[in-house]
Automatic annotation (TrEMBL):
GO terms for cellular component: cytoplasm. It catalyses: GTP + H2O = GDP + phosphate + H(+). It comes from Lysinibacillus alkalisoli. This is Zinc transporter. Pfam families: cobW, CobW_C. GO terms for molecular function: hydrolase activity; nucleotide binding. InterPro entries: CobW-likC_sf, CobW-like_C, CobW/HypB/UreG_nucleotide-bd, P-loop_NTPase, Zinc-reg_GTPase_activator. Belongs to the SIMIBI class G3E GTPase family. ZNG1 subfamily. CDD domains: CobW-like.
């Protein structure tokens, strides 16, 4: 039987960070992982986090729970017919309801081959503290992802004071009294904690709160000319708080290769890129098509 882990969590919470670290730890244990990545948006940006020797299937458009169980089944079939692997890690989009994603993975076809260990939800601790500021449907999804987890990572703990960190754990435990909670930075959790999952997972939760029509949309933008970094950062500071996530490569004036850029909940990360990547950025949020982007 191959163990299956489902990674859940709101946009930008740290799922890819968790995936990367889990893959590293699995390989260090001599295990062969395989990955299914479900990206919200057209750019397979996060798949660069997965080494080329790891079997990978990507579902770019839509989300694993809405695109139908058939598509997910086909991806799993594809993996099962490919090179040998021991553990399957599935990263869902930040917009996925974890129980629906789990439903899509459960299939009688693989019942004797896959052992579904459970849902690991990564929660952005800072965002959790400020959850009241989220639009109601987003907040509902955010809490559902926490409520249905079997293991919870209270991530980005480095951004909180000690008393805030203690409050986050206490409050998260109230939302989900059954899951084991680990405070993390960059979603680093020891593999043995993750592997204990099935021991604590007696049954999967089935009820779920209704989440009606989330207004999330995505937009892929391509820079046609370089942008001044200062102008771009000014634009970031003025963004409405309904823009949840951006990732991609920004063509910055005076810098040879487009820079790796990440934005999650007001936090910005720039990294130099040594390869010339296409200057494209995925924006995820509400009404993203109406947003004016510098140099586009
Ligand atoms: N300060 C801080 N930043 C973090 C931490 N974990 C992740 N990040 C940053 O948060 C951003 C999003 O991290 P990802 O791991 O890509 O999050 P994700 O959940 O996969 O994002 P989506 O797939 O877009 O939903 C990146 O810029 C990370 O470097 C953390 O513990 N502390």
């Amino acid at each position: 039987m191959k163990d299956v882990y489902l990674l859940s969590g709101f946009l930008g919470s740290g799922k890819t960070s968790l995936l990367t670290d889990l893959l590293r730890q699995l390989k260090a244990q001599g295990l062969k992982p395989a990955v299914i990545m479900n990206e919200f948006g057209k750019l397979p940006f996060d798949s660069q986090a997965v080494d080329e020797d790891i079997p990978l299937k990507e579902m770019l458009e839509g989300c694993i729970c809405c695109s139908g169980a058939e598509k997910t089944e086909a991806q799993i079939q594809g993996l099962l017919h490919g090179p040998e692997f021991d553990v399957l890690v599935i990263e869902t989009t930040g917009a996925a309801h974890p129980v629906e994603a789990l439903d899509a993975v459960y299939s009688p076809i693989f019942a004797d081959q896959l052992h579904i260990k459970g849902i690991i939800t990564v929660a952005d601790s800072k965002r959790f503290l400020e959850r009241e500021t989220l639009p109601v449907q987003m907040r509902s999804l955010f809490l559902e992802q926490i409520r249905h987890a079997h293991l919870l990572l209270a991530n980005k703990i480095d951004l909180l004071t000690d008393s805030e960190a203690a409050k986050v754990v206490q409050d998260i435990q109230q939302v989900n009294p059954h899951a084991f909670i680990v405070q993390t930075t960059h979603a680093k959790v020891p593999l043995n904690v993750v592997e204990r999952l099935s021991a604590t997972t007696s049954q999967f939760p089935v009820e779920k709160a209704p989440i009606t029509s989330l207004q999330l949309s995505t937009r892929l933008v391509t820079f046609t000319t370089p942008v001044e970094r200062e102008v771009f950062e000014q634009w970031l500071r003025a963004l409405p708080d309904t823009i949840y996530r951006m990732k991609g490569y920004v063509w910055v004036k005076g810098i040879t290769n487009p820079m790796l850029f990440q934005y999650a909940y007001g936090m910005v990360q720039w990294l130099p890129e040594y390869v010339k990547m296409s200057p494209q950025l995925v924006i995820i949020g509400e009404n993203v098509n109406e947003l004016k982007v510098p140099s586009i």
